[in-house]
C-alpha cells in the first residue's frame, strides 16, 4: 500500500512539474506600458516577444497588477508545445 502511494504521488509531481515548464512568468516593462498600456486581462491573446527574436502567440494565464502603479504587472503566459 505504501508503495502505491509513493508511485501515485511521484506521477502527480512529475505532471505538476511538466505543466510548470509550459508557462513563462515575467514583469511588465513599465516604461512601455506607460506609453501604450495593452490593457491585459486573463485569457487575452498576446504575442510573447523576448526582444531577441523569439516570438510566440499565446494567452495570459495569470496577472498581478499593482493598485498604486497599474503599469507594473507580473504576467504569466501559457506556452503550448
Structure, briefly:
The protein is an alpha+beta fold and 81 residues long. 31% of the residues lie in helices and 33% in strands. Strands 1-4-3-2 form a four-stranded antiparallel beta sheet, with no helix packed on it.
Features:
single chain, 2 helices, four-stranded antiparallel beta sheet, 31% helix, 81 residues, alpha+beta
Helix content: 25-40%
Class of secondary structure makeup: alpha+beta
Helices, by number, come to 2
Order of helices and strands: HEHEEE
**Would you report the number of β strands?**
4
Q: Can you tell me the residue ranges where pLDDT is under 50 for at least 5 consecutive residues?
A: none
> Judging from the principal axes of the Cα atoms, what is the shape?
elongated
State the end-to-end distance. Answer: 36 Å
How much of the residues is beta strand, in percent? Answer: 25-35%
Largest sheet: 4 strands, antiparallel
Reading side by side through the largest sheet, how are the strands ordered?
1-4-3-2
Rounded to an integer, what's the Rg over CA atoms? 17 Å
The average pLDDT value, as a whole number, equals 84
Your description of this structure?
By secondary structure, this protein is of the alpha+beta class. The chain contains 2 helices and 4 strands. It has a 4-stranded antiparallel β-sheet with strand order 1-4-3-2, with no helix packed on it. A hairpin with a 7-residue loop joins β3 and β4. The chain is elongated and about 55 Å long. The chain starts with a helix and ends with a strand. The relative contact order is 0.22.
